[in-house]
Design goal:
single chain, alpha/beta, Rossmann fold, seven-stranded mixed β-sheet, two-stranded antiparallel ribbon, binds S-adenosyl-L-homocysteine
């Protein structure tokens, strides 16, 4: 196992985050592009290098605690998020052949050319949501909208951190997989919806937190419309300055929307329609 770096990788307080990314200059100096959804062949390579967490059963909370400890050492300081990461059994969300890697900081294939995001990226994005006005005031994420359920792992984390979650997936097979995966979770008020997440989910709007696991050319207007005052949106988006993607944070205050562009990232594309 790679020793955890001493220096925090993610300065999580928003006011300490670097400014907008510029062409050729990723926002975190020297930081690698965050790749929660690496190309599938990389995930397959990683799968062939499986290493078993030593001495502990995969269902052991101690294995997850070690993952959480590594994330803490990398700079993740949001206790509710760390608690949720310690609780949700990530190995149950991936194929059994990949379960031995479930608590390493790596993305893994979940079928249909999609991947489950790296725990460090999931933790980073959830911690950013916790820095929003609503979450700082209330201590939870309130009503959450997630776009891109995938295998349901992040949805299960969100269910522990919020009052209610609506999670949308456009691929029927993954929607069904997520449904099966969360069935055994202590899930709170978690609703999985099959559909095109670009239109959001108006019936439960407005949301105090919106998070996307797929990136498009721009943020869909419906997400901005469905964001509550005091709410925060965290999503990858195309960055014309670099030609890649950047993580966007949008807050709705009493005076309207304000947005910031943070880390360079690499997520799967936000697609239209269902399949
Ligand atoms: N949060 C997930 C990661 C899923 S990867 C997890 O924990 O496993 C991103 C997902 O976004 C993919 O499953 C992809 O099918 C989905 N996606 C892409 N465009 C979408 C859209 N318009 N609406 C809903 N889901 C979408």
């Amino acid at each position: 196992m790679t020793p955890a770096p001493k220096a925090p990788r993610f300065p999580l307080a928003l006011n300490r985050l670097p400014g907008p990314a510029r062409a050729g200059a990723p926002s975190s100096a020297g930081a690698e592009v965050l790749r929660p959804q690496r190309p599938l062949q990389h995930a397959a390579e990683a799968a062939s290098q499986a290493s078993t967490p030593s001495g502990l059963g995969l269902d052991s909370a101690a294995v997850r605690q070690r993952m959480v400890q590594r994330l803490r050492e990398q700079g993740l300081r949001c206790e509710p998020v760390l608690d949720a990461l310690a609780q949700v059994e990530r190995h149950r969300f991936v194929d059994s052949a990949l379960a031995t890697q479930a608590y390493e900081d790596t993305s893994l294939p979940i079928g249909l050319s999609q991947t489950i995001s790296k725990p460090s990226v999931v933790g980073h994005m959830l911690a950013l949501l916790f820095e929003g006005t609503y979450a700082r005031t209330h201590g939870d994420l309130g009503r959450v909208l997630e776009i891109g359920s995938g295998c349901g792992y992040q949805a299960a984390l969100l269910a522990l951190l919020s009052r209610s979650v609506v999670s949308i997936e456009r691929l029927r097979a993954l929607h069904d997989k997520a449904r099966a995966n969360v069935a055994h979770q202590r899930r709170g008020d978690l609703r999985l919806v099959f559909g095109d997440g670009r239109v959001g989910h108006a019936p439960r709007a407005p949301y105090q937190a919106i998070i996307a696991a797929a990136g498009g050319d721009e943020l869909p207007q419906s997400w901005l419309d469905q964001l509550d005052v005091g709410g925060r949106l965290v999503a990858p988006m195309h960055d014309s300055a670099t030609g890649g993607q950047a993580l966007m944070v949008v807050d709705r205050g009493p005076q309207g929307l304000s947005s910031r562009r943070l880390d360079a990232v690499h997520f799967v594309p936000l697609k239209s329609g269902t399949a």
